[in-house]
Write a structure and sequence with these properties.
2 domains; alpha/beta; 333 residues; Helicase, Ruva Protein, domain 3; single chain; disordered C terminus; MoxR family ATPase; P-loop_NTPase
């Protein structure tokens, strides 16, 4: 590793430490959720936050936009939301010389950090419009390509309880999310701190730590971070063992799982382990990073078969078993 790269990794780690401390002023508890969201952004990807209402998902995205110095927009997804409500549309206007011309009005997707609230409530057409933006970094309106701001990240929320009137995300769109970030209920002492902090007259002040150019530079530094051969092989072993019907997968998994993760899962882990190491101010990832990111990277890229769901098989438990089998008990812990 060159001295320049070493210095860049150390500086990025220190900066992200300040980002975490600033976010913690406003988002109490939920350290793992914050770290996964930051890891997704550092990796240049998108995150899907899954949790019940009232668990600070919206607050987290707003806080990240401020602390990271990114322009941020929020879209509340509803069944009647149209693609033009996100992308924008061309309107016919009168010109000063008496003629008429079309003018494009940008939609909320033209931002750097987009919060897609309750994303599974929008119809397939609207979800498809967002899919192109997430994958390609540009949209097509009236046959014309329009590039999005850089960096561009989507943090979407999904309520796992109230599924009536929703449209399940297609596998292709789920695969575009780097991580699925499960947001659980807080512990009692954390909830007490939230209660006291949010029902008073003042909220903690937060300030901007980074800006877009610095974040892009850190994303490039992350991709240059070295990854040991042992970690690379562990990622490949884990992802390939999660695919039913392959030589690497066991009989139990092949019977339970209907479809498994593709190459994007390995790419997500490869970037994610670097981001986790950087957040911990380490110079390179290890097997513990692979184990910690197995569920976030694989859960939304796998699906249980009908029989397994009827028998109450847990997808999370299957992934944990793979981690223990492929990486060893120490790493899984």
């Amino acid at each position: 590793m060159s001295d320049n790269l070493l210095r860049e990794i150390e500086e990025a780690g220190h900066a992200m430490g300040e980002v975490r401390r600033m976010v913690a002023r406003r988002v109490i508890g939920q350290e793992q959720v914050v770290d996964l969201a930051l890891a997704a952004i550092l990796s240049g990807g998108h995150g899907l936050l899954v949790g019940a209402p009232g668990l600070a998902k919206t607050l987290l995205v707003e806080t990240l936009g401020t602390v990271l110095g990114l322009s941020a927009n929020r879209v509340q997804f509803t069944p009647d939301l149209m693609p033009s409500d996100i992308l924008g549309a061309e309107v016919l206007e009168s010109t000063p010389d008496g003629g008429r011309a079309f003018r494009f009005i940008e939609g909320p997707i033209f931002t750097q950090l987009l919060m897609a609230d309750e994303i599974n409530r929008a119809g397939p057409r609207t979800q498809s419009a967002l899919l192109q933006a997430m994958q390609e970094g540009h949209v097509s309106v009236a046959g014309e390509r329009r590039d999005l701001a850089q960096p561009f990240h989507v943090l979407a929320t999904q309520n796992p309880i109230e599924q009536e009137g929703t449209y399940p995300l297609p596998e292709a769109q789920l695969d575009r999310f780097l991580f699925q970030i499960d947001v659980d209920y807080p512990e009692r002492d954390v909830e007490r701190a939230v209660l006291l902090a949010t029902t008073g007259t003042e909220m903690e002040e937060i300030s901007t730590v980074l800006d877009a150019p610095k974040l892009i530079a850190m994303q490039q530094t992350l991709r240059a971070m070295p990854v040991g051969e042992q970690v690379v092989e562990a990622i490949l072993d884990l992802v390939r063992a999660a695919r039913p019907g392959t030589d690497e997968a066991g009989a139990e998994l092949s019977e339970a799982v209907a479809w498994g993760p593709g190459p994007r899962a390995a790419q997500a882990l490869m970037l994610g382990v670097r981001a986790r190491a950087l957040l911990d101010e380490r110079l390179a990832p290890d097997l513990d990073d692979v184990a910690a990111l197995a569920r976030p990277a694989l859960t939304h890229r796998m699906a249980l078969g009908f029989a397994a769901r009827a028998e109450g098989v847990s997808l999370g438990a299957l992934i944990d078993g793979l981690v223990e089998q492929r990486l060893g008990t120490q790493a899984a812990a």
